[in-house]
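Per reviewer request, we include the raw input and output of the structure prediction for the construct analysed in the revised manuscript.
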Amino acid sequence: MVLPILLMLTFGIWATARAWNVNNTMQHSAREAARYGATVDPWDPTDPNGSPDAVRAVADADLSGSSVDPLVIGDCIEFVATSASPVCNVIHTNNTNADQIYVQLTYQDYPLNFLFFSVDIDMHASAISRFEAP
């Protein structure tokens, strides 16, 4: 009689712990990618193999190292001004006051699989690092 309740509790703890681990990994990856992006000089968002792709590669390597599939993680990588709010998909190429790297990682519809049911949640992680040009 107690076994179904015990199994549900055990699987619930495991699923929640895995989601927490994925969220912490995303936070760490965003911080590492922003830290790396702060050292890329010159920053060139128009180059197809340039700065944003290099920053994304750092995040992907960190995610892969923690067994999180980087292909399901969406990103937003920007070079923004201190006074501006980072907005994804807005390129601030003409902003001469830009001095920060903004990295946002998103996991849409992460499945929390419990024993008898499943719930999808959205997870977001972001980091901002000050640009450190030589």
